[in-house]
Amino acid sequence: MSKQRVLTGITTSGTPHLGNYVGAIRPAVATSQKTDVESFYFLADYHALIKCNKPDEVHRSTLEIAASWIALGLDTDNAIFYRQSDIPQIPELTWFLNCMAAKGLMNRAHAYKASVQDNEAAGEDADFGITMGLFSYPVLMAADILMFNAHQIPVGRDQIQHVEMARDIAQRFNHHYGEHFTLPQALVDDDVALLQGLDGRKMSKSYGNTIPLFLTEKQLKKHINKIKTNLLEPGEPKDPDSSSVFQIWQAFATPEQTAAMREEFAKGIAWGEAKKQLFELVNAELTPARERYEALMKAPAEIEAILQAGAQRARALSQPFMDKVRRAVGIRPLA
Ligand code: TRP
Fold it and tell me: Which of 8, 153, 165, 278 has its CA 20 to 30 A from that of 188?
C-alpha cells in the first residue's frame, strides 16, 4: 500500500498565536518529520482573500506564518511546504469541481449560513456583503485537498463540514468521470488542546483575546499577566479546571509538571506566582524558535526559496494529475 497522505492549509490572515501553535503548528511539525506518511502543508492565500481585502495584511501574514512554521521546525525537506497561489492547477481544478458541486450543498455551509443569519438578524438583505468567494469557499478547499489525493486532513472542528463537502464533491466527480479522487477524511485530534484566550473564551483572532506566538520576552510577560483570573487571595485554594492560566500551563507542561501545578492550585498559589511560572514555561519552549523567527523575518528571500522549492515538488504532482483530469472531462487536443 502506498503511504498515507496528510494535508492541511493555513489561511494567511492574521498573526500566529499560541492557540494556533498548540492546536495546529506543533502537531503539524511533529507529523512533518515522520517518514511513514507523506505530508503537505500550504499557505492558503487564495482563501485569505475571502476574509481580508487588505493587500499589506495578506502579504505580511503570509510572511509571518511561513517564518513561524519554519522557525518551529517544520521539516521542509520531508514534508511538502508550499503556497496555494504557486500551484495554478488548484484554481483550474476548482472550476471543474464547481461544475460538479451542488449549489444546495453549498447553501448548507456553516460559514455562509452564519453570514446569512447575521444579515437577517440585522434586517438586511440575506445576501448583503456576501461574495461568491465566501459562498464557494468549500469548493476551493476541496480542490486543495483533492489535487493531492490526500487521505487525512488535520483540522479544527469548524472545518469538518468542509472536508465532508470535499468528500461529497469527489464522490460525485468519481461517479461521473471515473475514479480520480481519493476520498478524504477529517482528522480531529481530541488530545490537542483548544487553548483559552485572555478572557477565558477560545483563543481566536475574532475575539481579540490572543497571545501572539512570537513576542519579545517583555511583551510575552505582559500578555500573560493580562490573563483574566478571579479575586481569590494567595493561600486560598483555586480551581485549576476553570482557570485559563492552568489550562495554558497544561498545554506546555509535562504530565508531572501539570500534576505539580494542580497541587499548587489546591495549596492556594498566588495568581501572580502562577503567571510568573507560566511565563517561564512558555518562554523556555519558544525561545530557540523565536531567535530563528527573527532571523527569518529579516531574510524573506530565504523563505521565498523554501516555498519555491516546495511549489516545484507540489507542481510535479499537480501538473500530470490535472492533465489526466482534463482528459477525463473531455478537454484535450483535437488531434
Ligand atoms: N479553510 C481552512 C481554515 O480556515 C484553511 C484551509 C484551506 C484548509 N484549504 C484547506 C485546511 C485544505 C485543510 C485543507 O482553517
Answer: 278
Q: Can you give the pTM of this predicted structure?
A: 0.95
Q: Which neighbouring-strand residues pair with 153?
A: 186
How far apart are the C-alpha atoms of 154 and 11, rounded to whole Å? 14
Over range 314-331, report the average pLDDT: 98
- Name residue 275's amino acid: K
CA neighbor of 93 nearest in space, from 168, 143, 58, 18: 143
Shortest-distance atom of ligand 1 to CA 10: 5
**Where does 4-101+136-193+300-329 sit in CATH, by number?**
3.40.50.620
Atom of ligand 1 lying closest to residue 44 CA: 7
Q: Which residues line ligand 1 (CB under 6 A)?
A: 7-9, 11, 44, 47, 141, 144-145, 153, 155, 159
The residues of the chain that CATH labels 1.10.240.10 are 214-295
The per-residue b/e assignment along 293-330, b for 16 or more CB within 10 angstroms, e otherwise, is: beebbeeeeebeebbeebbeebbebbeebbeebeebee
The fold of 214-295 is Tyrosyl-Transfer RNA Synthetase (1.10.240)
User: Is the predicted pLDDT of residue 190 greater than 90, yes or no?
Assistant: no
Ligand 1 pocket mutation pick from 25, 40, 47 by most atoms within 8 angstroms of CB: 47
Q: Residue 140: name the closest of 46, 12, 55 by CA.
A: 46
pLDDT tens digit sequence for 85-115 = 999 999 999 999 999 999 999 999 999 999 9
Ligand 1 mutation pick, 5, 11, 81, max ligand atoms within 8 A of CB: 11
- Contact in structure between 109 and 158 (CB atoms under 8 Å): no
